[in-house]
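>> received
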Amino acid sequence: MIDPKVQVLKDTVEKIERNHSDNPASSQLKQILNEKIEELETLGNREPEPLAESD
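>> returned
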């Protein structure tokens, strides 16, 4: 199952491609979002680490 946060980013990238493909800044924005998507997917595939208990 896809993390809802990742899906929102993917939907945003698709929307940018459809509506702003002529804008040079949109390619930079898509690149940044795709990098963040990869980071989130990588984090989502790992087992969550136990939280450190504070004294």
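>> The radius of gyration is 15 Å.
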